[in-house]
Design a protein that fits this description.
Layout lengths: L17 H13 L3 H13 L3 E4 L11 H11 L10 E9 L2 E9 L6 H39 L5 H10 L8 E7 L5 H11 L4 E5 L2 E6 L3 H11 L4 E8 L5 H16 L12 H12 L1 H10 L2 H10 L3 H10 L4 H8 L3 H15 L6 H21 L2
Antiparallel strand pairs: 1-3, 2-3, 4-6, 4-7, 5-6
Length: 379
């Protein structure tokens, strides 16, 4: 590997001291030229090619890829062999933590080591600049998602404009994701979402991680499936209007609540079919879902809680078994007459007859409404 300074900048002029080189390097960092320019300046003064590698910042020069792998493995606790062309190595460290390394390929001048140390110090400035930039971006993302969750007066054009500034295109709507890290680092979930879906907008709000993912529900569910190894995740349906992304976020949060509480009838997965419709209604008109629950199965839920019976479980099994009394009895490990008695109690308490088609449909929908609001009832 040979050092070549970019033609549009010209070869850097040697300065009289390492201090002068340091000022030049820091100036390059603050001007946005990054680690590549720091390495160019160090190379000119050291008299040999130099690479400045900080794995967390990525690889600014393709030719440094092998050095990045070497340094990253060493930082992870491994003992990779040093590349043969590397003749000198200076760690880049801050607060006792090693962040990277300055590598020199080939024999340099007598004072080359001083310039490698100067480059290592200058690299810390680049790290600080990058971290400040990331922190600012994360703050902007978090405040934007917080606004989406708490304000209903944001217009679609403003939502699209602000999301684009953050690298997320919501012009065609999005699918929302809500995850509970369960005591683990939420930052890992945010990073995982960003790695899985370019253009996603993800941030921690409160004790949960929220995300908006342009694309299809199927794509969002694949992301959720991978995150599911680390956290409980709720995924909304797709909302095509950018003005509705708040509802998407609320729906994802509701689905997470139900999933975490173990809700969902055996024959109908959470987030599918009728459940999905109820989630949407709950996100926009929560009082309607609660009212329907109160008019249907609230009485048997209260009865079960008071007398430790299982009218809700029996009714669910009965509906799941296509109203077959014998199959229901086998499922709940009870006598057929016990099933009949419990269903009669359901009729008495709710005023809805499980043996009548129309009433059965209302009871079934009432059970679904109960499962999606059960986490809120238990608070």
């Amino acid at each position: 590997m040979t050092y070549q300074a970019p033609g549009d900048r010209g070869a850097p002029q040697p300065l009289p001291s390492p201090r002068g080189a340091h000022l030049e390097m820091v100036g390059a960092v603050l001007a946005g030229d990054g680690l590549e320019r720091v390495a160019e300046i160090a190379s000119a003064h050291a008299g040999a090619p130099v690479a400045v590698v900080v794995p967390r910042l990525g690889v600014p020069v393709d030719a440094w890829a092998s050095y990045e792998r070497y340094v990253a493995l060493r930082l992870a606790g491994g003992r990779p062999p040093q590349p043969r062309e590397v003749v000198a190595e200076v760690p880049i460290a801050s607060g006792g933590e090693e962040l990277g390394a300055v590598l020199m390929m080939g024999s340099g001048g007598a004072d080359a080591g001083e310039y490698l140390h100067v480059a290592a110090v200058a690299a810390l400035t680049e790290v600080a600049v990058a971290e400040a930039r990331d922190e600012t971006e994360q703050t902007l993302r978090g405040s934007f998602l917080e606004e989406l969750l708490t304000r209903d007066d944001l217009e679609a054009v403003d939502i699209v404009r602000r999301s684009r500034r953050l690298g997320c295109d919501l012009s065609a709507g999005a699918v929302a994701l809500c995850a509970d890290p369960g005591g683990r680092s939420p930052g890992r979930l945010v990073a995982g979402i960003a790695a899985e879906r370019a253009g996603a907008l993800a941030q921690t709000v409160g004790d949960r991680v929220y995300a908006l993912l342009p694309g299809t529900v199927e794509e969002a569910r694949r992301v959720a499936a991978r995150l599911g190894r680390q956290a409980v995740v709720g995924v909304s349906s797709h909302y095509g209007d950018p003005a509705d992304v708040r509802r998407a976020l609320e729906e994802a949060s509701l689905i997470l609540d139900v999933t975490a509480a173990g809700g969902g009838a055996p024959s109908d997965g959470i987030g599918e079919g009728t459940y999905r419709l109820l989630f949407r209604v709950l996100a926009s008109h929560p009082e309607e879902v609660r009212s329907f629950y109160g008019d249907t199965v609230a009485a048997i839920v209260s009865y079960d809680a008071q007398y430790r019976t299982d009218l809700v479980g029996t009714l669910e099994s009965y509906l799941d078994q296509n109203c077959n009394m014998n199959a229901t009895a086998q499922t709940i490990h009870a006598h057929r007459h016990t099933v009949g008695y419990r269903l009669e109690r359901v009729r008495e308490l709710t005023g809805l007859d499980p043996f009548k088609t129309e009433d059965r449909e209302r009871l079934g929908l009432g059970l679904k409404a109960y499962w999606i609001i059960a986490p809120q009832l238990r608070r």
